[in-house]
Specification:
Number of helices: 4
Order of helices and strands: HEEEEEHHEEEEHEEEEEEEEEEE
CATH superfamily of the largest domain: Efflux pump adaptor protein, beta barrel domain
Radius of gyration: 45 Å
Number of strands: 20
CATH topology of the largest domain: Elongation Factor Tu (Ef-tu), domain 3
CATH class of the largest domain: Mainly Beta
Largest sheet: 6 strands, mixed
Distance between the termini: 67 Å
Structural class: alpha+beta
Length: 376
């Protein structure tokens, strides 16, 4: 029994040694961890604009609703709807015959009253001589003189009536008060219009034109700081495909914060030479406050935010990665300013971070393949 037990123990030990040997062999021949495919970008120095993005609404520089100042039949409309008009250009004519007759009547009344006033003045001069000789009483002279003075006042009223009649006659011809683009025509030729009643047409001045937008009130300090040193530029991006952005400058900053939205309103002026901006249009605008000169930047997709804070994976010379905390600043055009943590000329991972751990070795994909692959 003892001999048989010894044999079994020896067999067990042999099996254990064989198993340990196999495990040791497996450890020796296990393949290395595969390289992780990633895309990278090089941190570099660049100028970064200090910008605030907002939604803008286009407004005409001036807008005039044209109304008739006298009533009558509309006998001429000398423009087409939607046509550009020039300040001083005739747009409408109202039948002037009633106003020509009124002017003639006022002039006739003036001529009559001038004759009466001249006669009254002669009587006053004659009575002045007679009262000196006591041929008439002072009361009689006073009545004649008062009548002469009354006629002088009547002449002034007649002259005022002529001025008014001439003005009404001028109002029969309606000219464009500003240069701009005409809108929809509310009354056609032959219509009867009333004085100061309905709008005939609206003219918008669109050269130049304004864009109104609002930015958070927290940016007010920056706007005041940078706006005091130089004119703040604004870039507007029309919504139509293929249109190039247009540039203008800020001409107005509101004097109060809108408490309902906690924003401050601004207006920018654009020359609008290509008619890309249209009243009522909404578009993206970028307020350009300043430019940060030669700061370190990396693509925004390289930055990750997690429990460790804001970090990036930096590729070392042996193609292994380390995770590095960074302090980020402003961002613009897909780039992020790195204030601390990464130096210019260092490479950072922009795609494939989810498969990385500190010390992982990476396979850098060619630039033409960047944008797909492993995923972030």
């Amino acid at each position: 029994m003892t001999s048989r037990g010894s044999t079994i123990n020896r067999s067990g030990l042999i099996v254990s040694f064989i198993a340990l040997g196999m495990v040791a062999c497996e450890k020796q021949v296990s393949p290395p961890r595969p390289e992780v495919p990633v895309t990278v970008a090089e941190a570099r120095k660049a100028d970064v604009p200090v910008e605030i993005r907002a939604i803008g609404n286009v407004e005409p520089l001036q807008s005039v609703a044209i109304r008739a100042q006298v009533g009558g039949e509309l006998v001429e409309v000398s423009f087409e709807e939607g046509q550009d008009v020039i300040a001083g250009e005739v747009m409408f004519r109202i039948d002037s015959r009633p106003y020509e007759a009124a002017l003639a009547q006022a002039q006739a009344t003036l001529a009559r009253d001038q004759a009466l006033e001249e006669n009254a003045a002669q009587d006053a001069r004659r009575y002045e001589e007679l009262v000196r000789k006591d041929y008439v009483t002072k009361e009689q002279y006073g009545r004649v003189k008062s009548g002469s003075e009354a006629y002088k006042a009547t002449l002034q009223a007649d002259e005022a009536a002529i001025v008014r009649a001439k003005l009404d006659l001028e109002y029969c011809t309606i000219q464009a008060p500003i240069s701009g683009r005409s809108g929809s025509l509310m009354f056609k030729r032959g219509a009867i219009v009333k004085a100061n009643d309905s709008t005939l047409v609206v003219v918008h001045q669109i050269h130049p034109i304004l864009v109104k937008f609002a930015v958070p009130a927290q940016n007010l300090a920056e706007i005041q700081r940078y706006g005091g040193r130089t004119a703040m530029g604004v870039t507007a991006y029309p919504v139509r495909d293929g249109d190039k952005p247009v540039t203008g400058h800020v001409i107005f900053v509101d004097n109060a914060v809108d408490t309902s939205t906690d924003t401050i309103a601004l207006k920018a002026r654009f020359e609008n030479e290509r008619n890309l901006l249209w009243p009522g249009q909404f578009l993206d605008v970028v307020l350009e406050l300043d430019v940060l000169r030669q700061v370190t930047v990396i693509p925004g997709e390289a930055v990750q935010t997690g429990q460790q804070g804001t970090t990036v994976f930096v590729v070392k010379s042996d193609r292994t990665v380390e995770i590095r905390p960074v302090k980020v600043g402003r961002s613009a055009n897909g780039l992020v300013v790195i204030e601390e943590g990464v130096r210019a000329d260092e490479s950072v991972v922009t795609d494939g971070q989810l498969r990385l751990v500190p010390g992982s070795k990476v396979e850098i994909k060619p630039a033409l393949e960047q944008g797909g692959g492993a995923g972030r």
